[in-house]
Amino acid sequence: MVLRLASGRIAVGILGVIALLAVLGPIIAPHDPLEGGTDILASPSAAHWLGTDYLGRDVLSRLLDGSRVSVLGAVQVALIALVVGVVPGILSVYLGRPFEWVTLRLADTLIALPFLVFAVAVTALLGNGIPQAMFVVGIMVSPLFYRVARAATLSVARSPYVEAAILAGASVGWVVRKHVWVKVLPPIAVALANTTGVGFVVVSSLTFLGIGVQPPAPTWGGVLAADLGYLSFQPWAPLAPTALIMATVWACNLLADAIRDVTGEAGRALLNTRTVHAAKEAR
Amino acid sequence: MKRRTLAVLAALTLGLSGCAGDGGSGGAAGESTLRWAVTLPAHWDPVVSGSGAQFRILSLAYASLTEIDENGKAVPSLAKSWDYNATGDQVTFHLRPGLKFSDGEPLNAAAVKAYLERAKTQKNSALFGDLTSIKSVTTAGDLDVVIALTQVDYQIPLLLGERVAQITSPKAALDPAKLDQSPVGAGPFVVTEYVPGSHVYLKKNPDYWDAANIHLDRVELQPAPDAATIVSGLKTGVYDFANLGAAQVKAAEGAGLDVVFQPGYNASNISINVNKEPFTNPKVVDAVRYATNRQEYVDKVTFGTGKATDQPFPPGYVAYDDQSANAYPYDPSRAKALLAEAGFAPGQIKLDLVIAGAIYATASEIVQSQLKAVGIDVTIKVDPNWEKPFFAKDLTLSLYGTTGRESPVQTLTAHFGPNGPLNLSTPYQPAGFEAAVAAARSTPLDSPDYAKNLQAATRAGLESRALVFTYSQPNIFVKTGKVSDITPIPGQIHWAGLKVEP
């Protein structure tokens, strides 16, 4: 459905390329991303398309190799937030006042906390690794999913057909599976795409600060941070990692918009109209 | 009504601006002000601050017993002269008359005695290890400080310079915690305003012993911004003077700023703990020695501004031993062979290289790649509290860069001595080092044997398996054309004679 919108096609295209880089990056990298050379801070050339860094390492190879860390980190944040947020969000409508009160307060608390600072603290406590940091970030952004799932569930739970089903003896589980899940899924998909974008920003920010990975492992944020120290030699160097991060986050947001457009009522109507027109033209 | 409100606001504004006093930024028109972008010191008590690079900033507020000249020779400062007894185990410093601290207290022999005793005994003193040659301090009259030594030691005038003997007011030192944040000395300047993390303002001290040669009315210290923005800060006139990273030299020169390569005694090293596995095996240490390509540090850390060195000072220094130079040339094949002889397969040795912070980032990655090339896997760990395990000698492998010492013997004992703060392998010391150092220490500085004995001590120290020296980098500063030339004193900045156009 998303591919029927131009924005959706662009977003999926970019994210597809990024996913491919995550899988194939280390294989297609033209040089060993960890091997230095004598030609330090070199300008782009046929041998080094994006030049070399302060230790003479190929920047393109480092960006390609660093894709996996960024993609896995972002996906980890989104999935953890999804799992931790959606289930309590739906259950808060059905499990009574005490559960609702506790989960709402927990969500409020998590929203108030700065997740980057917490991620830094956790890496200091549990060791300098992206999985630990992203686990914490995932939990801290889960209130987004909690609130989205809860709002969608509330709108369904109070609708006449659901009340009728319950009066007819339907169980909560059946109602959730049959009616709630269908309503909750579209906004969750939008939130998932948005949160993946947030995940990319967080991974890049942490690795920019040198948190989450051990040198000499390459990351997008790490390459960017290193470039900033040598601007007098390579003023253009930050462009490549910045463009990569920006394009990926933009694609996530574009995908979220596209999902919203095709799953919202107006979007569905628009698509239906286009489908009818297309069918007529086909005839 | 509106007019009255405006008048009240204007009066309040004028009143508040009038309250700024001499602590405000910018100084009065026509004043000669130096604005220095620098990492602000955490400690302002020299006893706590120690003999690291921060002594340069503290030298604004404190005067020392001696100074050094361009050749590194001890010259008078608070002490106008000194003399040794015939046996060389007692030295008397003769102070200038009429000296006083910025709090009005007299700077006399009693004040110097109080300072040295505090540096030896205060619980958090970072200097007590430097003063082990001092047995006792007594006064002879108001101006003579008599220092009895535990051994014959002709290095004391060099030792009691800016790094170790920036004399503090004894009255202010009664509250060491306060002194640590509110300096009271007899230096060329007096702190008028100090906001930690923000700025420090100082004004000229008319009571400084060499006040006639201090041409700056005011110094403003501001926290150094990100390295990449220092050059633009100077170019736009925000600062006049700053410390500069080697990576920024090209940009500074391109911007038409004056880049100053101040000579120094700096030397960086890979610190090894021979009391911990796998370095208990001398062959593993030798493998690290042969795996070290010093030129790579010169090229990638100092951008060609430094020199490769395998000793705790730069080549050409009086204590540099030519006989020991290049004893372990870069030879990765030999390093691999030594590891094999020691029974280690490639990748079997896994080490944590614990470093203090970003300042060692590039060097640590070079260590990592050079050791990886011979089969040693290194994980870099940045520890913000690195000082604690390093000086407690708990680490196995680390990096350190010293700014050196005015006394070469002090440099040697700090690195190779059994209790040397820079010896990660305490109490290990190489055989013969103690005797060689004693010989160097007991040689008068003007003796024809001085250089020979000093170099013999260096040679003995370099038998240590605890240190692999890598490179030496000069101290790099950048200044605008408004600031006059800086006298090339090794490792130090002398404020006398320095001028800034108003």
From TrEMBL, chain A:
Membrane topology: Multi-pass membrane protein
CDD domains: TM_PBP2
Domain ABC transmembrane type-1 residues, every copy: 67-256
Transmembrane regions: 12-29, 71-94, 106-126, 161-176, 188-211
Keyword set, alphabetical order: Cell membrane, Membrane, Transmembrane, Transmembrane helix, Transport
Name of the protein described by the UniProt record: Peptide/nickel transport system permease protein
Subcellular localization(s) per the UniProt record: Cell membrane
A GO BP annotation: transmembrane transport
Family label: Belongs to the binding-protein-dependent transport system permease family.
GO CC, alphabetical: plasma membrane
Record Pfam families: BPD_transp_1
Chief localization: membrane
From TrEMBL, chain B:
GO biological process: peptide transport
Keywords of the record: Signal
Domain Solute-binding protein family positions: 74-416
Domain of life: Bacteria
Signal peptide region: 1-20
A GO molecular-function annotation: peptide transmembrane transporter activity
Keyword S-adenosyl-L-methionine: no
GO cellular component, one term: periplasmic space
UniProt xrefs under InterPro entries: Peptide/Ni-bd, SBP_5, SBP_5_dom
Protein name per UniProt: Peptide/nickel transport system substrate-binding protein
Species of the source: Asanoa ishikariensis
